[in-house]
Amino acid sequence: MAVQSTMPKYHKELLKVLFTKKKKELSSLSFPDITVQSARIDHAQLEAYNRYFAFVNDAIPLPFWFVFSQPAQLALFNHPEFPVSAMGLVHTGLVIECHTAGDIGDDYQVNVSVKACHSVAKGKQISLLIVIQNNGNPVVTIESEYLSLAPKVRDKTSKAKKAVSDDRPFELADTRQVDYNVAKARKYAKISGDYNPIHIHALLSRLFGFKQPILHGMYSVASLYAYCYKRNVGSDKQMRVKFKRPLLLPQSAHILQLDTRGYLLNSEGKCCVEMVW
């Protein structure tokens, strides 16, 4: 176990992720975990986050807990015994569960560990468990799923398989249109601290395999959660999210809420993010 007295600096951990030489995958059955002994919510950051997404000023929205713990997650990615290279990890989903109401002024302990690591058809599936506590009492737990893609294997059936598995688009008649662009992504980056170039820079995003910048995953989650929050639907106790496909920038997206599900759709009506309460 690696122990840090305070929350690591996000920008330093991000630079390590972006510029550390790619490592070989590890096959160890034991994986590292990181504990932050004392972490406090940045009042200015939370205020800016709530103002941007129009949440109540003193609230700690469910998606914010992920932002709060993200520096510790990056520190785990950078640990020499983390089983895969952090570069190229694809965020595929997460579950956030609030066990008890947290307070802005509380002192939190954050533990991030690898819950599971196993091979799948596309590479390796990594499951992280983030536990946020106050004086030993669980406040929030987050299970976050990532995919480490294996080298592409080209075959004659790959395009056909993609066509068969592709989900059908939604009707856009009853949706709310939301325009996303790089300028908005940069505003979110300033609030969250997530300056990953794949989200905010057209040229640098190409160096990391994207033709255009893509929207922050947690920006899309916060947008979707905020929309449902304002309609008095959803839950402040638990949310399940699946990331289906990236949202390229700039783009006019659409938000759709159906009972206990919310969807962020691209301009073609195809689902990028699905949220379930």
Automatic annotation (TrEMBL):
SUPFAM superfamilies: Thioesterase/thiol ester dehydrase-isomerase. Residues 169-244 form the MaoC-like domain. It comes from the Bacteria. Transmembrane segments: none annotated. PANTHER family: (3R)-HYDROXYACYL-ACP DEHYDRATASE SUBUNIT HADB, 3-HYDROXYACYL-THIOESTER DEHYDRATASE HTDX-RELATED. This is MaoC/PaaZ C-terminal domain-containing protein. It comes from Vibrio agarivorans.
